[in-house]
Amino acid sequence: MNAIEVRELRKSYGDHVAVRGIDLTVAEGEVFALLGPNGAGKTTTTEVLEGYRARDGGDVRVLGQDPASAGRRWRADIGIVLQTATDAAELSVRETVRQFAGYYPDPRDVEEVIDLCGLTAKAGARVQSLSGGQRRRVDVALGIIGRPRLLFLDEPTTGFDPEARRQFWELVRTLSREGTTILLTTHYLDEAEALADRLAVIAAGRIVAEGTPSTLGGRDSAPATVSWRDGDGAHEVRTVDPIGTVVNLARHTGISGLQVRQPSLEDIYLDLIGAKA
Ligand code: ATP
Questions:
Q1: Topology of domain 1-77+148-162+175-222+263-277, per CATH?
Q2: What does the pLDDT look like over 47-74, one tens digit per residue?
Q3: Which atom of ligand 1 is nearest to the CA of 40?
């Protein structure tokens, strides 16, 4: 079964067309990343899928139901980490997570979630007293406490230090292994590459490319850059046959610093955005 099915989704704000006919399918258990520049329509799309925004047109099914009319049971299966951080209450981290656990029929264990989100040392601290990145971890804890089948993560690691990002990636992998479907919106290409089974690039309200991190935008067949040094200095060529180039170079003596670089996901992404945005 597909967790998300979207056909011809359209949404305008007044005269401004934010989403111009998006098709999207996310299989159950998949980690799917949405990439795209600011204003591309990612948040609008995810808010429609979350049932928080009305659409102008198109068919949308999320966990088998139309989010525009789905009820409480459906909502209990959905976890959401929004872009804007949770309002910091007077409560401690533990009290906040416990309070949210009470909203769900089958919540996870509060201490387990606090631990999974790297908040054990701050469990007794008021949310108000936390740093920006620590508050973001609380947002993540509140998003997963209800044991969602489908988790929406909208720029979840903004403000995280590098170690916290790695910990968060491990958390996403753990949730994914447990079977949670995850729709991730991110501006970090390394994050998309590390986590996503498949991804789509949205530009100006349309999907301009879709694939796996290694095939997106023809990445697997795109020219590679081969660089090396010899007695004449430094050299660099772009080629669709890097192996042939390396084999040729191996016949020469005095070659050093040989490197073969495939285009990064960021190279491909910037090409897609530059060409089609
Ligand atoms: P970002 O990466 O900056 O979060 P995004 O891809 O999530 O961007 P959206 O927030 O979906 O983009 O916005 C898409 C377009 O719709 C933008 O041009 C934005 O200005 C416009 N827009 C979004 N929300 C509203 C609103 N409530 N009223 C009017 N215009 C809006």
A1: Rossmann fold (3.40.50)
A2: 999 999 999 999 999 999 999 999 989 9
A3: 6
